[in-house]
Amino acid sequence: MTTATAETLFVTELFASIQGESTRAGMPCGFVRLAGCNLRCHWCDTPHAFEGGREMLLSQVLDTVAQWRLPLVQVTGGEPLLQPGCVPLVEALLAAGHTTLVETNGTLPITALPENCIRIIDVKCPGSGMSERMHWPNIQALTTRDEVKFVLTDRADYDHALAMIKQHNILSTGAAILFSPVADMLDPQQLAKWMVADSAPARLQLQLHKIIWPADMRGV
Ligand code: SF4
Fold this sequence. Notes:
Number of domains: 1
Number of strands: 9
CATH class: Alpha Beta
Number of helices: 5
Largest sheet: 9 strands, mixed
Shape: globular
CATH superfamily: Aldolase class I
Helix content: 10-25%
Bound molecules: iron/sulfur cluster
Structural class: alpha/beta
Low-confidence stretches: none
Distance between the termini: 24 Å
Radius of gyration: 17 Å
């Protein structure tokens, strides 16, 4: 990867699909997956986004997105905030009238993002091996538009998620809280039982795209 600028982006994938995660799961959505990540989660399902990517002008990305004619667009990664072109991209998508989701791994400040996008923070639990990397001040920047997603591998991750919700007062932000079991690691039925038993202040989320299409299929 050569140096990215505000006018250029390194893009792993551009595709139109069904939104598979978040409170908007099930809606048609365009995806801009930016290349590069500063983490290496044990269960990562997008290692192809770790590096490389196709160098594109911001205008080329916007042209592709416009062709989809989809109101909803998600910027994701990798970790999108690593690229200086991420914020200009989000601003341009908003200016074009898109409801714009930005999924971030929560290690970098989200305050540079425009307030009218929807920030989705993936909180890293111990099972990821990356839980010490979280930038917790991000939580207090969240609003009722935003979302916090805990990806869970086991009971220890689940207990950690409940503890972090309490410790960082996440409920006070009004952001939606999602618990997502890692496929083939945590049985959704088991997670559902724990959540009901504890009246967990979160909603269970399954990765819809992995139910609709083969779990390892890219570009969906
Ligand atoms: S932050 Fe996302 S892309 Fe990066 S290693 Fe973790 S799961 Fe993979």
